[in-house]
Each structure stands twice: as structure tokens, then as C-alpha cells.
Amino acid sequence: MAGSHVLPLPIAVFLVLSFGVAPSASTNNADLLHQVCSNVTFKDLCISALGSDPSSSTADINKLAVLSVEVAKEHAKATYSYIEHLLNSTAGDPSLQQSLTDCSDVYVDIVEQLEDSISAFSEKQYKNINTWVSAAISDVQTCDDGFKEQRVERSPLVQKNAITSNLCSNVLAILKMLG
């Protein structure tokens, strides 16, 4: 059959077991992105975050996993910058200032944990990556809790914290696919 695309049996079995779908001749990297993202909690966020990177169109599952951590790290860095901006532009409310200062410290840790995770992929240290990304999610919760403890009426970081946490949750789901 000219033009027929047949995958070796071990690869086909891997795809069926990993993603619950049988590969076809049209299976390509865009399909892989959608298959991977269909197995995470925040599917739309996964597709938009990973799909916005041009390298995702040629990425395998390992590269998509690394890319998911890179996206989470970049969002955490942007959130840290936003917190620093708020610290420099909000005065007069000591509770808000304290909460933002605590979140600033937390986001420094989150960025470091995600950077460590990216480095650990080269050694396939999935257990360490899982630990660091889980710690990042916990750190986001610590930031959120700080506003409640300081009795700040509304955290200015609700949406940014949710996105950071959701991106990290997606990382953990993709990481499970790697073994």
C-alpha cells in the first residue's frame, strides 16, 4: 500500500495505553498536543499555553512536559514582577503590604522550584520534579492564605495565583504520562 503509515506494534500499544486512543495515519504533533492536554484537568489552559509556543508543533511528549514547566515558570516570573509593581505602587495598607511581601518571597521560591524542575528533566528525575511542582502549588496556596490571615478584603492576585496553580497542576498530569 503506497503512502500507508503503519506504526511498529510497540509504539502503537504505548500510544493506546498512554492516551487511550489508537494512532492513525493522521497522528502528528498537533494531535499529540491535544491528546496530552485531554488528559489534564485544565485542558483549555493546556492547549492555549503549550500551543502558543511554536516548538510545540514538533514536540514529543517529553518536550511538551518540559515546555509545560517552562510556561508555568514564565507565568510565575510575570506574577512576581506584578507583585513587585504592586508593592511599589500601593501604600497605606500595612496588611496588604505584608501579604504582598510574603507572596513576593513565595514566588521567588516557585520560580526556583520550576527552574530546578526544568533542569531535572535531562536526568529524568521525575520524582524530584513532582516534588518541586507540588511544592509550587502549595506555595501558591500559602500566598492566597496570607491575604486571608491578614484580613485583606480581596487579594489582587486571585486570578494570577489560580493560573499558576492550574499550570502546575497540568505539569503534574503530564508528568504522570512520562512514568
TL;DR of this structure?
With 179 residues, this protein is an all-alpha fold. The chain has 7 helices and no strands. The longest helix is centred in the middle third of the chain and has 29 residues, at 61-89.
End-to-end CA span: 35 Å
In total, how many beta strands? Answer: 0
Return residue spans where pLDDT drops below 50 for at least 5 consecutive residues: 1-27
Order of helices and strands: HHHHHHH
Round the Cα radius of gyration to an integer and report it. Answer: 19 Å
Main beta sheet strand tally, sense and closure: none
- Shape verdict: elongated
Let me know the average pLDDT: 86
Q: How many H/I helices?
A: 7
Category by helix and strand content: mainly alpha
Strand content: under 5%
Q: In percent, how helical is the residue content? A: over 70%
List the helices and strands and how they pair.
Elements: H1 9-19, H2 29-37, H3 43-51, H4 61-89, H5 94-120, H6 126-149, H7 158-178
Helix pairs in contact: 2-3, 4-5, 4-7, 5-6, 6-7
Protein architecture, described:
- With 179 residues, the chain is an all-alpha fold.
- The chain has seven helices and no strands.
- It has helices at residues 9-19, 29-37, 43-51, 61-89, 94-120, 126-149, 158-178.
- Helix 2 runs antiparallel to helix 3, helix 5 packs antiparallel against helix 6 (126-149) and helix 6 packs antiparallel against helix 7.
- The model is unreliable at 1-27 (pLDDT under 50).
